[in-house]
Write a sequence for this structure.
């Protein structure tokens, strides 16, 4: 990296937007960081996470003087993330039937008690995760379950989440496209590690308060790297956004 980077702005991830208890939610922070990318209209933002994301602490968004279209997020001397524009070519499968998705909801691993041996007496792998945590008091409550070779869930968004235009913030859309990828691997008996990279394209930001469908599916496994796809649809099953999530490592599965 060039040493001629300039500090253009700062970003802080509030404690509410956690994934692990002491780190920012990978999808949410990727959505926030993606806003710093200088993208061409045809490009998608690719966010590579390099270190745990500190909560309630200001970080700097730095741009290289010799490559202003690439941004990195720093916590003082620690590289947190890198952002760049890429072409995202993703074959999005048709979403499962809405009624089958609703029927499968109680089987979501996000609602299973004692599924995480490190958290006895709690629900789900990540009980207080902003996306999939059933014990998060302000979470998005996205609980996907296996349906027709994918995982799928209905997301009941809230009107008060809306931005100035009344639409869901892009960071919330990125959040919704994150955790389901991990649950897609879980449905195949694989418990992945942490999110390492996320690439997403928002076609249409839905109105806050809408009922939406979130899907995810596995794409490939290469050594310690696990690649999943995910998508967001409206009630007519019109595609609104899609993403790939790259998960690094594998953890023992205990069910």
């Amino acid at each position: 990296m060039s040493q001629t980077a300039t500090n253009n702005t700062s970003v802080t991830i509030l404690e509410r937007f956690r994934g692990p208890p002491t780190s920012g939610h990978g999808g949410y922070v990727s959505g926030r960081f993606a806003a710093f990318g200088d993208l061409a209209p045809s490009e998608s933002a690719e966010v590579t996470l390099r270190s745990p994301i500190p909560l309630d602490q200001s970080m700097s968004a730095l741009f290289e003087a010799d490559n202003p279209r690439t941004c990195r997020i720093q916590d003082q001397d620690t590289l947190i993330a890198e952002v760049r524009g890429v072409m995202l070519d993703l074959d999005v499968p048709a979403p499962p039937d809405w009624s089958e998705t609703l029927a499968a909801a109680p089987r979501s691993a996000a609602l299973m008690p004692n599924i995480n041996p490190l958290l006895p007496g709690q629900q789900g792998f990540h009980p207080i995760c902003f996306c999939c945590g059933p014990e998060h008091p302000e979470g998005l409550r996205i609980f996907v379950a296996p349906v027709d070779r994918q995982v799928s869930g209905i997301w009941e968004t809230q009107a008060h989440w809306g931005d100035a235009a009344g639409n869901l913030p892009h960071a919330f859309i990125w959040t919704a496209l994150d955790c389901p990828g991990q649950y897609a691997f879980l449905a195949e008996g694989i418990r992945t590690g942490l999110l390492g990279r996320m690439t997403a394209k928002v076609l249409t930001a839905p109105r806050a308060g809408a009922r939406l469908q979130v899907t995810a599916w596995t794409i490939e496994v290469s050594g310690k790297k696990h690649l999943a796809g995910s998508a967001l649809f409206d009630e007519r099953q019109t595609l609104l956004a899609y993403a790939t999530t790259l998960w690094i490592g594998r953890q023992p599965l205990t069910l």
In short: The domain at 6-86 is CATH 3.10.129.10 (Thiol Ester Dehydrase; Chain A). Residues 69 and 153 are 35 Å apart (CA to CA).
